[in-house]
């Protein structure tokens, strides 16, 4: 008889959520994690620590830019980097210990170590072999690098090293204007670093609604970030603790260089599955390394499932969490479902950027007739009161049925506002449904309602 009903490999947001849900559904479950603490990349070296640094650096920015305007007079604070890192570590500790508590509460066994899968139904840690009826791979992802770029996590860093730099660098070159590059670029720009972002494409954040991307780049530019667009990085050379980034401009093939104290490589991530023994087991994988799964997260091996960054789809903690809960339901003999068309994406800069559903570009490509309802935060009293009138809410609705197809927000609390639209979309709502819903005044949410009103007879405060 198998020792466990389920063994989940990896305790990131996909894995730990899956393990807790399995336990709640009455299954005997273990979760394998080789790190010292639970929570995976997200809690230890990703989402959570970066949000702590974004918050601290935003406070500093506020003190310099806006305190005096509000009559808060006095010397603006200086940065104690060691203390700021300690605050970030404290936040990490609270969160990872929280998962440990939840494991105990739900009777999830934490198997400490790095797992391999020697055979179907078996998980090996060092010399121990454990058996389970079902195994879920939730091993996440790792940063990719570029040819000619050697990561040392000191001078040339990934997001992991960028969270623990020995000091605030005078200059930083960020390779890649994706989510990581812009969030960490923002942190250091606010702390006084001269930040230059080198991006291969002509727009920031690939896949984002083009109008939002353009506004976002302009706002970040005003915050002091410099951009070199349409530039393919060729390599990074290190000498005497400094780095020189060589890039080639796509428009004319000309080469140029940039010197910096630190280089952040933020050119994407890839599934982290090395060492699991997938090849020997005969597990099917996609060209880019993602484990192949069917619509119910089953691999080609009986009883072996995979979720999160290790499979196809956006590499987002909340996508992994949804899959974790859904696969637990499937294993428990219930129905598991993830609505991949309604997964929000958020960038936690100031202003925040959030989106869900289709972009205008996608709708054009599909040849779908749509209405645009747009509302600027300049017309939102609450936003102006807190110096955040920049940005807008844009709702895209079907021209005939008024059903909401997508929403793109750049502005205050965008990452929270987007969920009103997610819920509306799950219910198949029309823009008019939001327009006719009473929204409290004065809130940022009123901007969402005004954008919905703009899909119909018009916004009031535009
Ligand atoms: P990304 O895929 O978002 O962006 C990488 C960027 O690098 C792209 O714009 C790409 O064109 C550019 N690039 C690639 N090669 C280049 C070269 N040779 N020269 C210049 N530019 C080059 O990847 P990123 O930012 O590393 O993030 C990885 C994953 O982590 C993403 O899937 C992201 O969604 C996720 N993530 C999500 C967060 C959030 O939801 N707030 C926060 C951090 C990461």
Describe this structure in words.
The chain is of the alpha/beta class and 462 residues long. It folds into three domains: 4-143 and 270-331, FAD/NAD(P)-binding domain (3-Layer(bba) Sandwich), CATH 3.50.50.60; 156-267, FAD/NAD(P)-binding domain (3-Layer(bba) Sandwich); 345-454, FAD/NAD-linked reductase, C-terminal dimerisation domain (Enolase-like, domain 1, 2-Layer Sandwich). The chain contains 14 helices and 22 strands. It has helices spanning 13-24, 40-45, 47-65, 81-106, 159-162, 179-190, 210-222, 278-281, 317-331, 360-366, 381-385, 414-426, 431-435, 445-454, and strands at residues 4-9, 29-33, 109-112, 115-116, 122-125, 128-137, 141-143, 156-157, 171-175, 194-198, 226-228, 231-239, 242-249, 255-260, 262-265, 269-271, 304-306, 345-347, 352-357, 370-376, 392-398, 404-411. The strands form five sheets. Strands 1, 2, 3, 4, 5, 6 and 17 form a seven-stranded mixed beta sheet that branches. It has a five-stranded parallel beta sheet with strand order 8-15-9-10-11. The longest helix has 26 residues, at 81-106. The chain starts with a strand and ends in an 8-residue tail after the last helix. The mean pLDDT is 97. The chain binds 1,4-dihydronicotinamide adenine dinucleotide. 1,4-dihydronicotinamide adenine dinucleotide (NAI) binds at residues 146, 175-181, 183, 198-201, 206, 232-233, 266-269, 314-316, 346-348.
């Amino acid at each position: 008889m198998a020792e466990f009903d389920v063994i989940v490999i990896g305790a990131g947001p996909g894995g730990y959520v899956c393990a807790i849900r399995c336990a709640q559904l009455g299954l005997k479950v273990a979760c394998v994690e080789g790190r010292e603490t639970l929570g995976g990349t997200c809690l230890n070296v990703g989402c959570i620590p970066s949000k702590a640094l974004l918050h601290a650096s935003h406070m500093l920015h506020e003190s310099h830019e806006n305190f005096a305007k509000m009559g808060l007079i006095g010397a603006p604070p200086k940065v104690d980097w060691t203390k700021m890192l300690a605050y970030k570590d404290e936040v990490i500790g609270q969160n990872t210990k929280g998962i440990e508590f939840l494991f105990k509460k739900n009777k999830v066994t934490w198997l400490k170590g790095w797992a391999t899968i020697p055979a179907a139904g078996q998980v090996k840690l060092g010399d121990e072999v454990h058996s389970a009826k079902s195994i879920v791979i939730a091993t996440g992802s790792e940063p990719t690098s570029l040819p000619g770029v050697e990561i040392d996590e000191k001078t040339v860093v990934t997001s992991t090293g960028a969270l623990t730099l020995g000091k605030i660098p005078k200059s930083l070159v960020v390779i890649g204007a994706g989510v990581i590059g812009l969030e960490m670029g923002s942190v250091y720009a606010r702390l006084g670093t001269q930040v230059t972002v080198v991006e291969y494409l002509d727009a920031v954040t690939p896949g984002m609604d083009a109008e939002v991307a353009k506004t976002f780049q302009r706002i970040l530019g005003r915050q002091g970030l410099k951009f070199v667009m349409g530039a393919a990085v060729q390599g990074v050379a290190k000498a005497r603790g400094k780095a020189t980034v060589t890039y080639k401009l796509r428009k004319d093939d000309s080469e140029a260089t940039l010197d910096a104290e630190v280089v952040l490589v933020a050119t994407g991530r890839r599934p982290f599955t090395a060492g699991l023994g997938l090849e020997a087991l005969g597990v099917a994988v996609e060209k880019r390394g993602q484990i192949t799964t069917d619509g119910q997260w089953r691999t080609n091996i009986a009883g072996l499932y995979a979720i999160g960054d290790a499979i196809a789809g956006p590499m987002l903690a909340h996508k992994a969490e949804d899959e974790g809960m859904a696969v637990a339901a499937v294993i428990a003999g219930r129905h598991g479902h993830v609505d991949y068309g309604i997964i929000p994406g958020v960038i936690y800069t100031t202003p925040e950027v959030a989106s869900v559903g289709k972009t205008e570009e996608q709708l054009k490509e599909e040849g779908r007739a749509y209405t645009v309802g747009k509302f600027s935060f300049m017309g939102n009293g609450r936003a102006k009161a807190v110096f955040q009138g920049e940005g807008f809410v844009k709702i895209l609705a079907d021209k005939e049925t008024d059903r909401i197809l997508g929403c793109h927000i750049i502005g205050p609390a965008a990452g929270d506002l987007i969920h009103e639209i997610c819920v509306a979309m799950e219910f198949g709502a029309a823009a008019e449904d939001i327009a006719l819903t009473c929204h409290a005044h004065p809130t940022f949410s009123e901007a969402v309602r005004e954008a919905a009103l703009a899909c119909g007879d018009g916004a009031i405060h535009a």
